[in-house]
């Protein structure tokens, strides 16, 4: 299975086995640098009970989290090793999942963002 397929399996498992709270206003994929020297990045899904496209602090208002169920990816391609490239790659995976993922309707009911916990968020999907 390729790395995107592993990401899809991780996300399918989370969305299939967890009911999102009614108060969810948006979703955020929190990104972490798990190991800087090894270029390992972690992805965590959170549901938030606040959303403000002008203030990224909304992502701190979690009403649900995948907690320690974090998807880890080690990037080996030289072009993907910096954190900006990692964020672009993971955002691309999220966009692909939102278009054709098994449980994408759960996420696309709300805005979806991605970003490193200590950085700016990228709005990946804006619910209508």
Characterise this structure.
The mean pLDDT is about 90. The protein is α+β, with helices and mostly antiparallel strands. It has one domain (about 5-120). The protein has helices spanning about 5-15, 85-100, 105; strands at about 25-35, 40-50, 60-65, 70-75, 110-115, 120-125. Strands 1, 2, 3, 4, 5 and 6 form a six-stranded mixed sheet that branches. The protein is built from three helices and six strands.
Outline the secondary-structure elements.
Blueprint: H1 3-17, E1 26-35, E2 40-48, E3 62-65, E4 71-74, H2 83-100, H3 104-107, E5 112-116, E6 122-125
Parallel strand pairs: 1-5
Antiparallel strand pairs: 1-2, 2-3, 2-4, 5-6
**Whole-number radius of gyration?**
14 Å
Computed structural class:
alpha+beta
Shape: globular
Number of strands: 6
Labels describing this entry:
6 strands, alpha+beta, globular, 128 residues, 6-stranded mixed β-sheet, 3 helices, single chain
Summarize the structure.
With 128 residues, the chain is α+β, with helices and mostly antiparallel strands.
């Amino acid at each position: 299975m390729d790395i995107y397929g592993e990401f899809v399996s991780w996300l399918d498992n989370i969305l299939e086995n967890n009911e999102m709270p009614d108060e969810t206003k948006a979703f955020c994929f929190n990104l972490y640098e798990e190991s800087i020297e090894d270029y390992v990045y972690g992805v965590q899904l959170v549901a938030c009970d606040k959303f403000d496209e002008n203030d990224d602090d909304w992502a701190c208002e979690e009403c649900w989290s995948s907690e320690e169920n974090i998807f880890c990816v080690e990037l080996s391609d030289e072009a993907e090793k910096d954190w900006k490239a990692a964020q672009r790659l993971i955002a691309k995976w999220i966009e692909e999942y939102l278009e054709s993922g098994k449980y994408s309707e759960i996420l696309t009911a709300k805005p979806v963002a991605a970003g490193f916990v200590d950085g700016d968020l990228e709005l990946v999907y804006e619910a209508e």
